């Protein structure tokens, strides 16, 4: 029996281990349950929820790229009400920390989402996806301007008592500035990275392959960018980091933790190997043991 | 539904090499759980290129020998890599996935296949009790070379009632399989006023063809099941990448091809959804 | 004999075909000459030159990542003087357009580099790499701020009569804004993309793998980001685009041209397959023929 | 230097499987051009993962049979994929690359190998005229199992004069190969005042070892050639990824390991360059 303490603290919540699943890649916690008990995970993050139900984008929504995928799901989700009534009760039965990812297209959207989730409602934290376009600001994403980002996080902060995680977009000149902005807006932690904006063109049809033209790039292809951003953000802010972006193996997870992540999220890897999160947990444990660490926390930021 | 390594029993080019068609036989537990119309999601290599699994329909299953038979056409990188896997090697599959066809236990069943879309229909031919159900296959394809490569011989041997349509008329009717379908539905025994209640249809093929098939079947009042294809990542309903659009009680909804399908009620599907 | 006209016009120069090699991946035009005659290429771009010789960064300078590589060569080069005396004479003997990539760490650096290259000096154009840190501005790269970018291009513009290509960094929030800035600074064309900033961590040594910590990500992994940027820039500016970032095959090159590139550069692909540029030329020709295009120019931007 | 597809004649694990060592024999034109100390840059797969070629030293070349023999250790993704290539398949190689060793045609030659760094030295043993040159190999490794797996038997058969050092003393001297080197250089015939002008040394192994070897040889006034390793992308001098630092006429300079090396004058190399 390994003697490594895998517990990590994050935004005031204690996770049994640092391995979570990334929003949009793990459905609502039920899809992968036939393969293993979600209770083995440190936390799960559910698909992004918006105030109203959304059909999302037309198909094709997926394009495979070298060592990556582009997706343009377009935030398809059942909407806040159905989520609270149908999905949340089932999520509460999972013996793991549940993080709800929320999205909106205006400050008001975010505030109303935030106020629907309070302490005791059965979830561990809110993750605020600020990569969405702000419709009132000409569609410029909240997450690409430090002021908007700080504003939206502050607004959410005022409306909920739950721990708050800001999910950052990598499509910015300075990720450190974005992290500082959400830190001063009141975020308890940051998640990074969301997907890189990309495009694939169908050379037969001579038009973009995705119906939505652009999509978000994820998977191992983006890992070097994600690791760099985690490393930079670790030096810029005091709040903990949830690292993600192309983690396929425990070695990748170790890279993110050494760069400064207190926990890691597995996204695209679930599609290739549904058991990837469990292999990562096991590998982290063995790595820590082989380095004679009593706690996995000792490796956080050790590459600085 | 399981994540399992299965042993490759056979992985062999079939028919004319130009057609790029392969038969893959896998041995393992998945065969015990499989139903006609389901598919498996195959990891074709061990590196990150390609990164995703590849969905392939189950064309036949043999429970005693614990074997699944799949047919695939080499299309791009993933299927090309799949051809390199040799007998006795193990491949990781996720499956059987999806809902599968609902098979009648009596009456008549009309199958309409387009191109390699016929492969999932093979699983019906195998599974349905042909003593009790009167099955007929209408199959359209490019030309005789394709039809022969893709399994025409087997069809002949099986004693199934079938009709062919090819674009160039090199075998069967010259034209579209939907023409065959129209003719078939107008045959005396299939007229609306005849015992049409006993007639069911199932189809798989290119989107355009299935849309036309759905229109014809609706017109004729024949219940239709369609097996759809869409680009997939997870295969289990977690990523929302593979949706189709359906109209339920008048309201547009998304369904996941991988989990809610790949087989849908032909009446329900909104073809060429614009949003 | 195919009937496709492969010629393209770019910044006032005529290229025999749209396929060039990317700066830093093709040395000084001699390294790949044992494999094929560089005269077959539309143009070659030489390694970035700075006013003074540079040793560049310590090793390791390379890290392989999924479908990509990180490099931190650090602009090792013989310096302007040695370049002019030793390399340029040999480059002039190649029967292809030679583009010289210049870099600097201050406005003065760029101006002095620019004035060293004038019409008739034997090169076809100057490519200005603005991804370098501006030492006078706290190390912030010229290429991450539209005003600095415009300023540096305008300064170069004043000091040379040669066609001017601005090479853009992808590490920005809005590539379209950067492209507009260099267009108004006087650039005749834009090259994009330079490398994405990334990092890889050695989990045994528990420190960044590259001696320089961060490096530039290139190769097929970045292609979707590059195609998206070319697509966006095509809609933002009137000057032609040289597209690059992970082009390995002619299909990839077609993607870039459909997205809006008038020419393409082959970079990392040279390392995997030295003959990649020739395969791309052949494939472009056949593609155009199969689409019944009299000129390859017909596909430029056709995906819009 | 050519870009060529060569035929795999053999690709086989050698010695104890734990050591992960393989011998790869390639047939083609490259063998005709190869010199001792050069290397080839191998494409280990056809996808983009891994993306880069892998450099492997030439351990032996047979001009008549047009064969190159390489030895490699499985280290990561690339070398693991290389093991999957089977005889009769073709692999793309770029090479022979680099400058190679300068071989004496008389006198004495001392080879100092560390671990798998011995492989390029094998090419010298093969090429040098042993009737005219008195060759001796000092080889350090982890333990007997490694030494035997990596080719000790062949050495024995070849009749070469050699001495071994292992970390655990399981064969040969217990300790570092540099200890053997010191002892060797202090043997009467190798003393500075003896005809040391006729003694040359060549070394390949881990950086730390070669640095020590260089210091010892400099001290003893023995000219040394070292074969360096560095991460490579292009292999032909185009990317500047693989440099080492040398001091020429007192000035620090970069050299490309792939093109200017991999063999350098041991005197020139700046070990652990800080800039
Ligand atoms: C439910 C289902 C069942 C299928 N059954 C079969 C079958 O029995 N036999 C058979 O030959 N093919 C079948 N297909 C199609 C098969 O999955 C694709 O041809 C294959 O994924 C192409 O991969 P590739 O790497 O060779 O091609 P590429 O074009 O290189 O693939 C690039 C990406 O696009 C996706 N893609 C490309 N074409 C299709 C397609 N038609 N459908 C879904 N995704 C696609 C790939 O999965 C991959 O992610 C089925 C598809 C689905 C969704
Ligand atoms: C000139 C030269 C000659 C060589 N000769 C031999 C030989 O004869 N036998 C042998 O077993 N090995 C030799 N090597 C080392 C061999 O190239 C590496 O072990 C191999 O590239 C590792 O690849 P991988 O994918 O298995 O490992 P990974 O660690 O997965 O490789 C990741 C990346 O790092 C690079 N890399 C890792 N280790 C090394 C290394 N030691 N040197 C250079 N690049 C490295 C790889 O090329 C790749 O780009 C030689 C290296 C060089 C530079
Ligand atoms: C299909 C898909 C859907 C996603 N949906 C969301 C989402 O709804 N909200 C969100 O914040 N991130 C979403 N993401 C981003 C992931 O949570 C994650 O940040 C990103 O994919 C990088 O991690 P990975 O490379 O491990 O997948 C989605 C990613 C994918 C691939
Ligand atoms: C090893 C290496 C060195 C490079 N050096 C330069 C340089 O000196 N100047 C420059 O503008 N770009 C440089 N680049 C960037 C390339 O020119 C190109 O923009 C980038 O690699 C993307 O293209 P690719 O993915 O096809 O390689 C370098 C790239 C690599 C891989
Ligand atoms: S493929 Fe993921 S939901 Fe269907
Ligand atoms: S590997 Fe490119 S210069 Fe040596």
Automatic annotation (TrEMBL), chains A, C:
<feature type="binding site">
    <location>
        <begin position="194"/>
        <end position="195"/>
    </location>
    <ligand>
        <name>substrate</name>
    </ligand>
</feature>
<feature type="binding site">
    <location>
        <position position="193"/>
    </location>
    <ligand>
        <name>FMN</name>
    </ligand>
</feature>
<dbReference type="InterPro" id="IPR001295">
    <property type="entry name" value="Dihydroorotate_DH_CS"/>
</dbReference>
<dbReference type="InterPro" id="IPR013785">
    <property type="entry name" value="Aldolase_TIM"/>
</dbReference>
<dbReference type="GO" id="GO:0044205">
    <property type="term" value="P:'de novo' UMP biosynthetic process"/>
</dbReference>
<feature type="binding site">
    <location>
        <begin position="47"/>
        <end position="48"/>
    </location>
    <ligand>
        <name>FMN</name>
    </ligand>
</feature>
<comment type="function">
    <text>Catalyzes the conversion of dihydroorotate to orotate with NAD(+) as electron acceptor.</text>
</comment>
<dbReference type="InterPro" id="IPR050074">
    <property type="entry name" value="DHO_dehydrogenase"/>
</dbReference>
<feature type="binding site">
    <location>
        <begin position="71"/>
        <end position="75"/>
    </location>
    <ligand>
        <name>substrate</name>
    </ligand>
</feature>
<dbReference type="InterPro" id="IPR024920">
    <property type="entry name" value="Dihydroorotate_DH_1"/>
</dbReference>
<dbReference type="InterPro" id="IPR005720">
    <property type="entry name" value="Dihydroorotate_DH_cat"/>
</dbReference>
<dbReference type="GO" id="GO:0004589">
    <property type="term" value="F:dihydroorotate dehydrogenase (NAD+) activity"/>
</dbReference>
<feature type="binding site">
    <location>
        <position position="129"/>
    </location>
    <ligand>
        <name>substrate</name>
    </ligand>
</feature>
<feature type="binding site">
    <location>
        <position position="219"/>
    </location>
    <ligand>
        <name>FMN</name>
    </ligand>
</feature>
<keyword id="KW-0665">Pyrimidine biosynthesis</keyword>
<feature type="binding site">
    <location>
        <begin position="245"/>
        <end position="246"/>
    </location>
    <ligand>
        <name>FMN</name>
    </ligand>
</feature>
<keyword id="KW-0560">Oxidoreductase</keyword>
<dbReference type="GO" id="GO:0005737">
    <property type="term" value="C:cytoplasm"/>
</dbReference>
<feature type="domain" description="Dihydroorotate dehydrogenase catalytic">
    <location>
        <begin position="6"/>
        <end position="286"/>
    </location>
</feature>
<keyword id="KW-0963">Cytoplasm</keyword>
<keyword id="KW-0288">FMN</keyword>
<feature type="binding site">
    <location>
        <position position="101"/>
    </location>
    <ligand>
        <name>FMN</name>
    </ligand>
</feature>
UniProtKB/TrEMBL annotation, chains B, D:
<keyword id="KW-0665">Pyrimidine biosynthesis</keyword>
<dbReference type="InterPro" id="IPR039261">
    <property type="entry name" value="FNR_nucleotide-bd"/>
</dbReference>
<keyword id="KW-0001">2Fe-2S</keyword>
<dbReference type="InterPro" id="IPR001433">
    <property type="entry name" value="OxRdtase_FAD/NAD-bd"/>
</dbReference>
<dbReference type="GO" id="GO:0016491">
    <property type="term" value="F:oxidoreductase activity"/>
</dbReference>
<dbReference type="GO" id="GO:0051537">
    <property type="term" value="F:2 iron, 2 sulfur cluster binding"/>
</dbReference>
<feature type="binding site">
    <location>
        <position position="239"/>
    </location>
    <ligand>
        <name>[2Fe-2S] cluster</name>
    </ligand>
</feature>
<dbReference type="InterPro" id="IPR012165">
    <property type="entry name" value="Cyt_c3_hydrogenase_gsu"/>
</dbReference>
<dbReference type="GO" id="GO:0044205">
    <property type="term" value="P:'de novo' UMP biosynthetic process"/>
</dbReference>
<dbReference type="Pfam" id="PF00175">
    <property type="entry name" value="NAD_binding_1"/>
</dbReference>
<comment type="function">
    <text>Responsible for channeling the electrons from the oxidation of dihydroorotate from the FMN redox center in the PyrD type B subunit to the ultimate electron acceptor NAD(+).</text>
</comment>
<dbReference type="InterPro" id="IPR019480">
    <property type="entry name" value="Dihydroorotate_DH_Fe-S-bd"/>
</dbReference>
<keyword id="KW-0813">Transport</keyword>
<dbReference type="Pfam" id="PF00970">
    <property type="entry name" value="FAD_binding_6"/>
</dbReference>
<comment type="subunit">
    <text>Heterotetramer of 2 PyrK and 2 PyrD type B subunits.</text>
</comment>
<dbReference type="GO" id="GO:0046872">
    <property type="term" value="F:metal ion binding"/>
</dbReference>
<comment type="similarity">
    <text>Belongs to the PyrK family.</text>
</comment>
<keyword id="KW-0274">FAD</keyword>
<keyword id="KW-0411">Iron-sulfur</keyword>
<comment type="pathway">
    <text>Pyrimidine metabolism; UMP biosynthesis via de novo pathway; orotate from (S)-dihydroorotate (NAD(+) route): step 1/1.</text>
</comment>
<dbReference type="InterPro" id="IPR017927">
    <property type="entry name" value="FAD-bd_FR_type"/>
</dbReference>
<feature type="domain" description="FAD-binding FR-type">
    <location>
        <begin position="1"/>
        <end position="103"/>
    </location>
</feature>
């Amino acid at each position: 029996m390994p003697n490594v303490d895998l517990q990590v603290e994050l935004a005031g919540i204690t996770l049994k281990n640092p391995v979570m699943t990334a929003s949009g890649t793990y459905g609502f916690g039920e899809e992968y349950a036939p393969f293993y008990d979600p209770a083995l995970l440190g936390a799960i993050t559910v698909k992004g929820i918006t105030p109203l139900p959304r059909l999302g984008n037309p198909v094709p929504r997926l394009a495979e790229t070298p060592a990556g995928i582009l997706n343009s799901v377009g935030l398809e989700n059942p909407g806040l009400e159905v989520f609270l009534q149908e999905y949340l009760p089932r999520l509460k039965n999972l013996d793991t920390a549940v993080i709800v990812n929320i999205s909106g297209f205006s400050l008001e959207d975010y505030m109303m989402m935030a106020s629907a989730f309070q302490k005791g409602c059965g979830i561990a934290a809110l993750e605020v996806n600020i990569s969405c376009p702000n419709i009132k600001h000409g569609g410029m994403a909240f997450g690409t301007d430090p002021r908007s980002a700080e504003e939206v996080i502050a607004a959410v902060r005022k409306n909920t008592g739950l721990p708050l995680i800001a999910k950052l977009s990598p499509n910015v000149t300075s990720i450190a500035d974005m992290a500082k902005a959400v830190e001063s807006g009141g975020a308890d932690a940051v998640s990074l990275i969301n997907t890189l904006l990309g495009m694939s063109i169908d050379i037969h049809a001579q038009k973009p392959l995705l119906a939505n033209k652009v999509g978000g790039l994820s998977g191992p292809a983006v890992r070097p960018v994600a690791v760099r951003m985690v490393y930079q953000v670790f030096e810029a802010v005091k709040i903990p980091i949830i690292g993600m972006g192309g983690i396929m193996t425990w070695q990748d997870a170790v890279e993110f933790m050494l760069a400064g992540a207190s926990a890691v999220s597995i996204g695209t890897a679930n599609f290739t190997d549904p058991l990837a999160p469990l292999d990562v947990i096991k590998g982290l444990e063995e790595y820590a043991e082989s380095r004679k660490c009593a706690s996995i926390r000792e490796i956080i930021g050790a590459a600085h | 539904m399981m994540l399992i390594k299965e042993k490759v029993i056979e992985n062999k080019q079939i028919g004319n090499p130009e057609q790029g068609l392969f038969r893959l036989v896998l041995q393992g537990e998945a065969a015990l759980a499989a139903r006609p119309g389901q598919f498996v999601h195959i990891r074709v290599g061990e590196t990150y290129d390609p990164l995703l699994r590849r969905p392939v329909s189950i064309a036949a299953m043999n429970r005693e020998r614990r074997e699944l038979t799949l047919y695939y056409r080499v299309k791009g990188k993933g299927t090309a890599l799949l051809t390199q896997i040799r007998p006795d090697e193990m491949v990781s599959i996720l499956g059987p996935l999806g809902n599968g066809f609902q098979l009648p236990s009596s009456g008549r069943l009309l199958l309409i296949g387009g191109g390699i879309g016929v492969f999932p229909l093979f699983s019906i031919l195998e599974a349905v009790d042909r003593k009790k159900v009167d099955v007929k296959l209408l199959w359209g394809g490019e030309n005789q070379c394709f039809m022969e490569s893709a399994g025409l011989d087997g069809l002949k041997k099986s004693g199934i009632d079938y009709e062919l349509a090819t674009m160039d008329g090199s075998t069967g009717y010259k034209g579209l399989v939907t023409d065959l379908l129209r003719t078939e539905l107008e045959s005396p025994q299939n007229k609306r006023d005849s015992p049409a209640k006993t007639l069911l249809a199932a189809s798989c093929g290119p989107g355009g063809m299935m849309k036309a098939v759905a229109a014809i079947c609706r017109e004729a009042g024949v219940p239709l099941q369609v097996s759809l294809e869409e680009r997939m990542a997870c295969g289990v309903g977690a990523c929302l990448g593979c949706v189709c659009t359906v109209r339920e009680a008048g309201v547009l909804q998304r369904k996941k091809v991988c989990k809610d399908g790949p087989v849908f009620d032909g009446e329900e599907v909104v073809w060429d959804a614009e949003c």
